[in-house]
Design the sequence.
């Protein structure tokens, strides 16, 4: 959102010295005034009204007060006042009139035309500085109030006001240590979808009130987005914050719906040398590292996270050029059939072969791209690469198997996603049943209605739909009831538990459920012969993992498939 000039001035002014513009045609008078004020203020100068206005337009958000001589050639002080009053960008900037005349008539005329104050030559330094301070304080107070201060729904400060006020508090109290806290109500989208926006809004209000009750002491709190808050609080111990998170969770258990997941990222003992936005970014970064993590609701920013943040920033700085330079490569990990033992499918996986960073596995960059939205560009790149590869194989009469591509949660924001995928398949003449679409349960829970509608269209168009990571903390049998899946992809955590009695029974039950629902299963993460044989005995249709093969570049995958096809 574009701020008004007065608001931009407020944000700038709490970060640095105030700036004055002196407009006076007398070089000596202008020089004297500049010498008196330059230690306390940044000084800009102009010799007449016309050049003064030009300089004012060029420094709109910087100038705190204009000191304006009344009698000048080219354009006198009254004319400058009229011009400023008629321009909404200039009218909020206060003007102190300067004159050698002490007539009441001049002063009255100046005030009527919009002047904030009036001083006569010769100048008394103490009077001028005190009057300037009063004018600047009044302007800052007025500008502060002109910001949209409160969020009507929660009674918290608006995000814009929070950052301005928090900055002022930190700078006004150098003797205190502060913490900045980023808060996310992680489950609110799902609650809104299932129970309605009215209940979701009520829960947001309740959580805001509970947090304010828990954070006793000197703190302020703002609503940054629909379901994200920011808090500036006096420094507390880690134990105090852990107790806060636990108390909030206990309170919410008594509410109308459960679970309600609230997560905290905390930047401790924020220092004077840092802006509030930077502090909040660090708290947000800590928060981002636990998004989607089951049973982890609080994270503190530390040196380890600082290094990780720097690494992630390097990735972000280079991602666009990497895509343009084809540094991302698509690899294929084979899936073997239970009955034949042959290659009956593959999953497309992306790797980054960077001249700058070397060969990078997806765990290093995929979470970064999911957070900043770049994942949709990368996914499209992979989809097109896979469609092109299948199309070329079909043209050359090279045997092909179905290839699975990942659909990330961010991809569902692509307009007409179903038509985009259909268009790619059509462009490269790919039969739809050769393209498997993998959807994670976590993506589904972000926006069930929207995702269900898109997936049903793709399923009706003949694409094979796989539910990925089945068995993670997000698992919900209701997903299987609401959407049409062809294949369940069992999470590696389930496969790793196959040799435990309980884990084996869980896998057996899931396999039986899939059979009754007429769905096939894929087990990923198989790393040894014993596990592969047990998965086959359980009836798992396809097995994927390093026991058979690591992900392979296309040419190696073709050779592998010819040997094992």
Sequence:
């Amino acid at each position: 959102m574009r701020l008004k000039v007065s608001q931009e001035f407020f944000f700038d002014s709490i970060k640095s010295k105030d700036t004055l513009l002196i407009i006076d045609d007398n070089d000596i008078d202008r020089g004297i005034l500049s010498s008196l004020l330059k230690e306390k203020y940044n000084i800009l100068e102009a010799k007449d009204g016309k050049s003064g206005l030009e300089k004012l337009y060029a420094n709109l958000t910087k100038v705190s007060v204009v000191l304006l001589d009344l009698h000048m050639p080219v354009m006198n002080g009254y004319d400058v006042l009229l011009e400023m009053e008629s321009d909404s960008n200039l009218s909020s900037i206060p003007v102190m009139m300067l004159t050698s005349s002490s007539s009441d008539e001049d002063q009255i005329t100046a005030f009527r035309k919009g002047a904030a104050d009036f001083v006569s030559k010769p100048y008394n330094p103490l009077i001028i500085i005190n009057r300037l301070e009063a004018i600047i304080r009044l302007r800052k107070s007025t500008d502060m109030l002109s910001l949209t201060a409160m969020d009507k729904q929660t009674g918290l400060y608006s995000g814009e006001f929070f950052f301005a006020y928090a900055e002022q508090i930190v700078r006004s109290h150098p003797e205190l240590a502060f913490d900045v806290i980023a808060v996310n109500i992680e489950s609110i989208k799902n609650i809104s979808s299932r129970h309605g926006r009215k209940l979701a809004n009520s829960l947001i209000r309740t959580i805001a009130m509970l947090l304010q009750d828990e954070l006793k002491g000197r703190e302020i709190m703002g609503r940054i987005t629909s379901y994200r808050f920011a808090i500036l609080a006096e420094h507390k111990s880690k134990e105090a914050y852990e107790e806060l998170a636990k108390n909030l969770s206990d309170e919410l258990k008594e509410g109308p719906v459960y679970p309600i997941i609230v997560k905290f990222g905390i930047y401790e003992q924020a220092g004077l040398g840092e802006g509030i936005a930077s502090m909040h970014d660090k708290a947000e970064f800590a928060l981002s590292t636990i998004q989607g993590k089951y049973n982890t609701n609080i994270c503190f920013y530390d040196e380890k996270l600082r290094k990780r943040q720097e690494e992630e920033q390097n990735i972000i700085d280079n991602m666009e050029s990497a895509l343009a330079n084809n540094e991302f490569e698509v690899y294929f990990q084979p899936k073997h059939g239970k009955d034949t033992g042959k290659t009956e499918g593959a999953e497309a996986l992306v790797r980054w072969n960077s001249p700058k960073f070397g060969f990078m596995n997806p765990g290093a960059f995929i979470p970064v791209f999911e957070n900043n939205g770049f994942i949709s560009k990368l996914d499209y790149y992979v989809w097109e690469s896979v469609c092109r590869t299948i199309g070329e194989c079909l043209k050359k009469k090279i045997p092909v198997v179905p290839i699975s591509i990942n659909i990330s949660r961010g991809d569902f924001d692509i307009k007409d996603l179903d038509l985009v995928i259909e268009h790619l398949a059509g462009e490269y003449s790919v039969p739809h049943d050769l393209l498997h679409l993998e959807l994670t349960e976590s993506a589904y829970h972000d926006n069930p209605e929207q995702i269900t509608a898109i997936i049903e269209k793709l399923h009706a168009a003949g694409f094979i739909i796989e539910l990925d990571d089945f068995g993670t903390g997000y698992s919900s049998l209701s997903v299987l009831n609401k959407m049409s899946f062809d294949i369940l992809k069992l999470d590696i955590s389930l496969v790793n538990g196959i040799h435990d009695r309980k884990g084996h029974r869980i896998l057996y039950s899931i396999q039986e459920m899939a059979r009754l629902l007429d769905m096939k299963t894929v087990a990923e993460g198989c790393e040894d012969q014993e596990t592969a044989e047990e998965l086959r005995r359980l009836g798992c249709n396809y097995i994927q993992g390093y026991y058979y093969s690591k992900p392979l570049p296309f040419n190696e995958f073709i050779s592998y498939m010819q040997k094992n096809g």
About this structure: Residues 125-146 form the longest helix (22 residues). The chain has three domains: 5-146, 157-301, 311-564. The chain has 22 helices and 21 strands. The two ends are 57 Å apart (CA to CA).
